[in-house]
Each structure stands twice: as structure tokens, then as C-alpha cells.
Amino acid sequence: MEKELTDFQVCDHDLPDTLCQEYQNAEAIAVDTETMGLIYQRDRLCLVQLCDPKDRVTVIRIAKGQTEAPNLKKLLEDSNILKVFHFARFDVGMLRQNLNIQVQPVFCTKIASKLARTYTNRHGLKDLVLELERVELDKAAQSSDWGNVASLSDEQLRYAANDVRYLLSVRHKLIAMLEREERWELAQDCFKALSVMVALDLLHYQDIFEH
């Protein structure tokens, strides 16, 4: 079993111009967020993490009250770059609620895992990375105070960085499984529906498709 990697860089408020341009050269980037909680209108966005196919990981610290990040918006709204999340529904909603970023196009490894890995009910990122990448993620910092962004510990920053480091590789392996099981087109339809699901979440709708 391999150990987590630890190299990454930290930025404040937004991506610098040069780094944004480098990420825009990628056909896909992995994205994750850290927040103060799980309620869009109450809990604020604290970090945005990115990783490209060159294993270039960046952690962006978002200030309390910050409402825009122009370079990040340009990158995440670029229709030529696929954004890969684990549980995209939440992260996309947080980015829309806090920074007015309409993320597209999107691939969700959690949805892909649920469609492909029907032999298990363990679809969390830790279990997914352990099976497909043979890496055991340290989740000790998962439930911690992300709000004091200027003073985050090395442990917190490493945790945040490693949450995006393996997503691009996991995506390729899940696509192979979905194609083998003839569920790849269904997965793509699910990804397209995410924008609508996020819009409903932000308006507090629940069970709208139920009887």
C-alpha cells in the first residue's frame, strides 16, 4: 500500500494569473472544497483545492465574506475543461452559493462509483481511493475548524490537498468499469442533471420527484 503524497502550494483568495493559465492547459482538473458545515446558506466556503494531470496541487484559502475569485471562476466555468469532484452536488452548490461560480462540465466520482461498484455500499472517497489506487487516505482532519484559514495546520492542509490528488486517476478507472458494464451513457446523463439538482438544493426543495 502506498503512502499519501504531501507536496502542494497554498494561495490566498484566488489563483494567480500564471497558475490559472497553467491549469487551463489541462483537459481535466480535480476539484474539492472545505467548508464550515453542510448547509449552504449558513456554512461558508473556506478552501478550494485543485489538481491537474501533472499532479500540480493548489489549495486556495477563501476569506470570510469573500464573494468572488475571478481566475477561479474563469477556470471552473471553462467549457473545455472537465471538473472532477467526489460528491459534486455539494461542492458545486457551495461554489455557486459563495463565489457565484457556475461549474461546468462536471464528473462526479461518487455517482460513478455508485453506478459501477454495485458490489459494495462503500462509496466514500477513502474507500474508493483505497480500492482503486491502493492508497489509504488519512481522514483525521476531516471534521475540523476550517474557518481560521490563515492559521490552518499542516495536517489540515495535507488532508485538503490529498482529497484531490487521486481523483483524476480514479475517474479513468471508473470510466473503464462503467463502459464494461454498459453504464457510461447513464453516468453522463447523471452528471448533466447535477446543475438542476444543485439549483433545487439552493432553493431548499426536497423530494420534488416523489409522488
- Helical content, roughly? 40-55%
Mean pLDDT rating: 94
Could you say how many structural domains there are in total?
A: 1
CATH class: Alpha Beta
Q: Would you give the CATH topology?
A: Nucleotidyltransferase, domain 5
List the helices and strands in order.
EHEEEHEHEHHHHH
- Could you tell me how far the N terminus lies from the C terminus, measured between alpha carbons in angstroms? 47 Å
**Uncertain segments:** 1-5
What can you see in these coordinates?
The protein is built from eight helices and six strands. It is an alpha/beta fold. The chain has one domain (9-202): 2-Layer Sandwich (Nucleotidyltransferase, domain 5). The chain has a six-stranded mixed beta sheet with strand order 1-4-3-2-5-6, sandwiched between helices. Strand 5 (82-85), helix 3 and strand 6 form a beta-alpha-beta unit. It is globular. The relative contact order is 0.18.
Characteristic terms for this protein:
211 residues; six-stranded mixed sheet; 8 helices; globular; disordered N terminus
In short:
The protein is of the alpha/beta class.
Would you spell out the secondary-structure blueprint of this structure?
Layout: E1 9-12, H1 17-23, E2 28-35, E3 45-51, E4 57-61, H2 70-76, E5 82-85, H3 88-99, E6 106-108, H4 109-116, H5 125-133, H6 154-165, H7 167-180, H8 184-202
Parallel strand pairs: 1-4, 2-5, 5-6
Antiparallel strand pairs: 2-3, 3-4
